[in-house]
Specification:
This protein is mostly helical. It has a domain of 173 residues. The protein has 19 helices and two strands. It has a two-stranded antiparallel sheet with strand order 1-2. The radius of gyration is 22 Å and the shape is globular.
Length: 465
């Protein structure tokens, strides 16, 4: 069976998410079992290039895919099944381009990630979960063959983020859902004047990390909208909704990055497409005007407290992150093992976060580990260049680089490096860097190699049936 209709796959994901909502509302795990059964069927019977879309859609739901708050997420066995099915496919129909450099770099990365934690008090399951996420995007890069896959992937990711946000929004007026979510995590509030404002976090545990996910989605949607002339209605609606949800997070980082994102987008659009730039500028002004008109008192009051309520010192502006950064820097520099090798994922200090991706990565992976990861990601980009037609020449100020800048800058104050969704963000950013509206002139979509790939997928579908 091959789910060829993209709209049907989207509807299927929404239906599956409804079972998760029913589990949240009723507390009956039978609905979560139904969800898990359906998503497993999708991971098995759908075509190889589309299987990853189920993982992408449900990554914003990861904390609710649990039988118990303290239990592991069903996202882990979902990812494991995806990897297992991909391995079987490659063993039976080995027709994908896999470079020796990719195999070697991944093997070194996997061995390093597993070995380092063995030298201390570590939890191996956490390490394996970390490695599993990167293994998933490895197979996604190997099995992709369509230059338009990025458009599907970012739409499905944004849709998963919007749907999870709508569930949280509904939860404010539905006690059962609200009780579940507040029990799942602590509620972050802002006191402004005589009112208490709850910071919106969707189904995430932290409003700042929710805002980060929103910013990545917005940046990637902008790339898609810029290049795709048709079929952008859904992308535009998702972008507008996510912009609003991001504002509700009351995140200082979100406001700063949103302004930066708008300026960078305008600069890129004016450089490449004046008409698109004017449309984008008009849309931004309209959205800002509407937001100020309807929510001026709420947003102005809340963000004023967020930015200057605790003073204007460096520590206050960074919400105490300066002290945390200094502590991590001193701990790393004073311990050669941490500096060069790292503590290893799954360590007893896994919950320690530097609120800075670069310091966190250095703490857990060390200089050697970071170099190994970068080499692995470099080979991942190369395999996408082989499998996907669209490849733009890298330019510093360009629409395609906006998601990369968002990822790198936002994580100066956050550390999504240890989060489950970070590899998905990396996959989307790598896709965005090479995305373009049309494939190169010398690329023929009907050549023998790609016809073989199509036939292999058909064989896989028949085998599944």
């Amino acid at each position: 069976m091959n789910i060829k209709n993209e709209s049907f796959r989207i509807i299927l994901c929404i239906v599956m998410s409804l079972f998760v909502v029913l589990n949240i509302y009723t507390g009956s795990n039978i609905y979560l079992w139904i969800f898990f059964t359906i998503v497993c069927l999708g991971l098995v019977i759908d075509s190889t290039e589309h299987k990853i879309e189920y993982l992408i859609y449900f990554i914003p739901w990861v904390y609710t895919l649990k039988f118990h708050f303290t239990g592991f997420s069903l996202y882990v066995p979902m990812s494991a099944l995806y990897v297992a099915v991909c391995i079987i496919y490659l063993l039976l129909w080995h027709n994908r381009e896999i470079t020796k450099g990719l195999i070697l770099s991944y093997s070194v990365f996997a061995i390093y990630a597993i070995t380092i934690p063995l030298f201390g008090e570590h939890t191996l399951t956490t390490t394996l979960g970390f490695l599993l996420n990167y293994t998933s995007i490895l197979f996604a890069a190997i099995l992709v063959r369509d230059e338009k896959a990025f458009g599907r992937y970012i739409n499905i990711y944004a849709l998963g983020l919007v749907s999870s946000s709508l569930v949280r929004l509904i939860g404010f007026v539905v006690p059962n859902i609200n009780n579940y979510i507040t029990a799942m995590t602590s509620v972050d509030t802002v006191v402004a004047g005589a009112r208490i404002h709850t910071r919106f976090a969707g189904l995430d545990l932290d409003p700042n990390y929710f805002a980060l996910q929103v910013l990545i989605a917005i940046a990637c949607l902008l790339v898609k909208i810029y290049y795709d002339q048709d079929g952008n209605k859904l992308s535009i609606v998702l972008l507008i909704l996510l912009t609003v949800f991001g504002l509700l997070s009351l995140s200082k980082m979100y406001i700063i990055m949103l302004i930066f994102l708008i300026v960078l987008t305008l600069a890129s659009f004016f450089r490449n497409n004046m008409k698109a730039a004017l449309k984008f500028l008009g849309s931004v002004l309209a959205c800002v005007g509407a937001a100020l008109y309807f929510t001026y008192d709420f947003l102005y009051e809340a963000f004023l407290v967020r930015f200057v309520g605790s003073g204007v010192t460096a520590s206050a502006i960074t919400t105490g992150r300066i002290e945390v950064w200094n502590n991590f820097i001193h701990a790393i520099l004073n311990n050669p093992k941490l500096l060069y090798v790292g503590a290893g994922f799954g360590s007893g200090y896994f919950n320690m976060c530097a609120h800075n991706m670069y310091l966190t990565a250095l703490y857990y992976m060390g200089i050697i580990g970071i170099v190994i990861i970068l080499i692995f990601l470099g080979n991942l980009i190369k395999i996408l260049q082989l499998n996907v037609a669209g490849q733009n020449k890298f330019r510093l100020v360009d629409v395609n680089t906006i998601p990369l800048f968002v990822l790198l800058i936002t994580n100066l104050s956050l550390d999504s490096f240890i989060m489950d969704y970070f590899p998905i963000h990396l996959l989307l950013v790598i896709f965005a860097l090479g995305y373009q509206s049309n494939p190169p002139e010398n690329y023929q979509r009907g050549d023998i190699y790609n016809e073989i790939l199509r036939q292999a997928d058909d064989n896989m579908v028949n085998w599944n049936e």
